[in-house]
Amino acid sequence: MVIAELLVLAVGLSMDAFAVSICKGLSVTKTNFKQMAKCGLWFGGFQALMPLIGFYLGNLFADYIKAVDHWIAFLLLALIGANMLKDAFGEECECCNEKNADFSVKTMFTMAIATSIDALMVGVSLAMAGNVNIWMAVAFIGVITCILSGFGVKVGGIFGNRFGGKAQIVGGVLLILLGIKILLEHLGIL
Fold first, then answer.
1. What is the C-alpha to C-alpha distance for residues 11 and 148, in angstroms, rounded to an integer?
2. In this structure, are residues 122 and 9 in contact, taking their beta carbons and an 8 Å threshold?
3. b/e map of 83-111 (b: 16 or more CB within 10 Å)?
4. Each residue of 56-106: pLDDT tens digit?
5. 99 backbone φψ class: left, alpha, beta (φ>0; ψ -120 to 50)
6. pTM of the complete model
7. How far apart are CA 127 and CA 112, in angstroms?
C-alpha cells in the first residue's frame, strides 16, 4: 500500500471515533485540552492496536484462504463501510442524546472498543491484501484518529452535532472504495 492509500484508510477508519468525539464535545459546557487529549489518546490508541491484532490473526490463517483473500478483504471493507453508512443515516448517536460528559476510564474504554471493532476487521483485510507495512499502517491510523478525535471534541463544543453523520458517510464511502480497489488490483483490472 502506498502512503496515499494508508492516509485514505486512516481517515476512513477514524470517522467513527471523530463522530463520537463530536458527541463528547456536545456533552460538555466548555471543551478543554484535557478532554481533547483523552478522546484522542483513547480512540487513537485503540484504532492503532486493533488493526495490528487483526493483521496477525489474518496472517495466521492466510495459507488457508490465499485463493480468496482479495474477496475477503473487499467484503470486510465493504461491509464495514456499508455499516458506517447505515449508522450515519440511522438514529442520532446515543451519546449526543444523553449529553453525557463522562470521560472516565470505564466510559472511554468502552467507547474506544466500540469505535475500533471495524479496525480489527480492517487489520484482517490488510493481511489478506498483502504487501502492507503494518507498522506504518497502524501509525497512520493511530495518529490520524488521535488528531481527528481531539479535533472532534472541539468541533462538538463549537458547532454542535452538525458533522457527526456526515463524517460517518465520508468514512463509509472511503472504506468501500478502498475495498473495491483491492479487489480490482487482485483481479488484474487495475
1. 9
2. yes
3. bbbebbeeeebebbeeebeebeeebbeeb
4. 988 887 777 667 767 877 787 787 778 767 877 775 555 544 445 678 898
5. left
6. 0.72
7. 23
